[in-house]
Amino acid sequence: MERYYQPEIETASREQIKAWQDERLVRQVRHVWDNVPYYRRKMEEKGLTPDDIRGTEDLRKLPFLSKADLREAYPYGLVGVPLKDCVRIQSTSGTTGKRVVAFYTQADIDLWEDCCARAITAAGGTNEDVCQISYGYGLFTGGPGLNGGSHKVGCLTIPTSSGNTERQIMFIRDLNATILCCTPSYAAYIGETMKEMGLTPDQIPLKAGIFGAEAWSEEMRRDIERTLGIKAYDIYGLTELSGPGVAFECSAQSGMHINEDHFIAEVIDPETEEPLPDGQQGELVFTAITKQAFPLLRYRTRDICVLSHEKCSCGRTHVKMSKPRGRTDDMLIIRGVNVFPSQIETVLIHQGYPANYQIIVDRVRNTDTLDVQVEMTPEMFTDDMGEITSRQKALVDGLRAMLGLTAKVTLVAPKSIVRSEGKAVRVIDKRKI
Amino acid sequence: MSIRQISVFLENKPGSLCELTKVLAENGVDMRAFSLAETSDFGIARLIVDDVYKTTTVLRDAGFVHRITPVIAVALSDTPGGLNAILEALNAEQINVEFMYAFLGNTPGKAYMVFKVQDPVAATTALMRQGITPLEDWENS
Question: Of A298, A329, A360, at which residue does a domain stop?
Fold first, then answer.
C-alpha cells in the first residue's frame, strides 16, 4: 500500500493544487515586490506591478532569474526577509569564484524538510525505519535536508555523512539501517565494497535507497538495486530552491513528483524562453511560492527535462518531471558536486597557468573522476622535480578549495591539448549516463 | 666551471621518450650523457650533448619544453674511492647534491660524474680546494 507523508496535499485534486498555486503566487509576488528591490526593478523594467499577477495564468509575464542574477545580487540581494528572521544558510558552487548562498527562515527549513519527508515516505519509510544519511553534511544541502526529513518521518537517523566507507557499512550492518540516502555513485561504491567483503544482498538490512544530486542511468539503478537488494528512488532539488526534495520518485519509478504546493514548474524553450507543453523537452524553470527568505521567481535551472501530468499509479496528483537529460550550460556534476569549467579556469589563471586546459571526467567503478590537464610552459619548467611536484600539489589544493573535491592534475606536453578554431573543447565527459 | 645540461619535460605516456630521441637522432645530436627522472605522471630527461645551441634549437622547433641547467662534471679515476673523494670534498663545505648520474666519455677507461648542486661556483671551489678540477663546458673539452 502506498504511503504518503501529507496525503491531503500529495493526492489533492488538480483544481485544489491550482487554487493553492494561484493564491500563493499572488501573495509571493507581492512579498517579493515589497522586499526584494532587485526583483522589483526587473518587474518595473517590464512595466509590471503586483496587480498584473492575478494567478498562475500570469506567471509567464514575470521576468526570469538566472545564476548570473544570483552572482550579481550576492550575498543579500535576493533575500526577502530581515536577516534576524533567517536561521540558516546553505551554499553551492557558482559559475566562478562566487558561491551561491541561499537563506532560510525556520518556516523555509520546515517546508524543505516536509518535502524530504514526503520523499522518504514515498520510498516506504516509517518511524520503524533506520535511515542512514551518507550525503555530505555542512554547506551542501544533501545531508541537512534528508536529515530533517528523516526526523519528521520519525526514522532513527544515522548522520554518517559521506566518506569512510568501512564505517558506513559497519553502521548499516550493526544498526540495521533500512534506508540509505546518498549520491547514486556512492551507493554503488558502498554496494561494491560490500560485495568484495563477501556480503550477499540478503545479508544487507537495507530495503530502500534515496539517491540524487547527480545524473544516473536506469542501468545504474538496476545495478545498485541488485547489489544492495533494495529499491532505489531518485530525488531532485537544488540549493537555490531549498535542496533535495523539490521533486522525488514514488513506487512507480517513472519520473519525480514535483512538490507543487511549494514550487510551480514550467518547461521553457531555452532560446525563445516560451513555455512548452507537457511532453516537450526544455529547460526547467521553478517559482518558489511559499519560501520567505530566498523567494526565487521563475528561476532557470539549466536542467533539461520533460513534464508529465499523466495519472500516476501511486495516487499522487502532482506533476512529474523526467530525470534531467542534460544542461543548457556547461555545468558538470561530479560526485554530486556542481563544477563549472570557469571555476577551474579561475584557479589555473590565479596560479599563473595558461588558460589552455582540458577537463576529463570519467566514471571508474561507479565513482566520478576529474582529471585536469594543463600544458607545461617554458616559464614553469625547471630541472627541479620537487618544485614541479609542489606546484602540481598547490594546484590540486587550489582546486579542492574552489570545488570542494579532489581533482587529479596532469601536466602534459605543450601544444598537446587540441586547439580548436571556434569554441574550445574544454570538457571531455567519458561517463556513460 | 660548470657545464650546461639540457633538461627536457616529458609527459608520462607511451612514446614520449621516443619522440625526443627521434628528434635528436634526426638532427644528428651527439649525446654524451642521458638520464631520466620521473614521477607517476611526468618526467625530466637530462642530456649532455656536444652542441648545446643546436640541440636547444631543434628542441624548440619540435615543441619540447626545456631548460638549460648548470651542472658540475668531474672525471673519475677508475679506482676504488674515486666517487667518495668527490663527495667528501663537497660534504666538507656542506654542499648538498640534488642529483647525480654517471657516464662514460670518449676516452677509454674514463668515467664521468655529473652533479646538480644549488651553487655550482661554491661546489667548484670546494672541489678545486681538494685538487679536483671539474670539466669546462663540454663543448670545449
Answer: A329
Residues 399-418 of A with CB under 8 A from B: 410-416
Dihedral sign for Cα atoms in the order A232, A238, A244, A245: negative
Q: Is there a single domain that holds both residue A292 and residue A204? A: yes
Q: Is any Cβ of chain B less than 8 angstroms from the Cβ of A389?
A: yes
Residue A294 phi, psi dihedral angles, 5° rounding: -135, 70
Which domain covers residue A403, as residue numbers?
334-429
- Cβ under 8 Å to A: B residues 112-131: 116
What pLDDT, in 10s, does the model give residues B11-69? 888 888 999 999 999 999 988 889 998 887 889 999 999 899 999 999 999 989 999 99
Q: How many domains does chain A have?
A: 2
- pLDDT tens digits along A189-234: 899 889 889 999 999 999 999 999 887 878 889 889 999 999 999 9
CATH of domain B71-135: 3.30.70.260
CA atoms within 13 A on the CB side of A130: 12
Task: Tell whether B64 lies on the interface with A, counting CB pairs under 8 A.
Answer: yes
* Residue in the block written with cell 519527508: A117
- Choose the closest CB to A414 out of B44, B46, B63: B63
Same-domain status, A85 and A225: yes
- Round to whole Å and give the CA distance between A344 and A322: 30
Give me the CATH topology for the region B3-69: VC0802-like (3.30.2130)
Please report whether residue A95 resides in a domain. Answer: yes
- Select from A378, A410, A413 the Cβ nearest to the Cβ of B16: A413
| Contact state of B116 with A383 under an 8 Å Cβ cutoff | yes
Interchain CB contacts (distance < 8 Å): A and B: 48
Confirm or reject contact between B16 and chain A (CB < 8 A). yes
Query: Measuring CA to CA, which residue among A143, A352, A374, A356 is closest to residue A244?
Result: A143
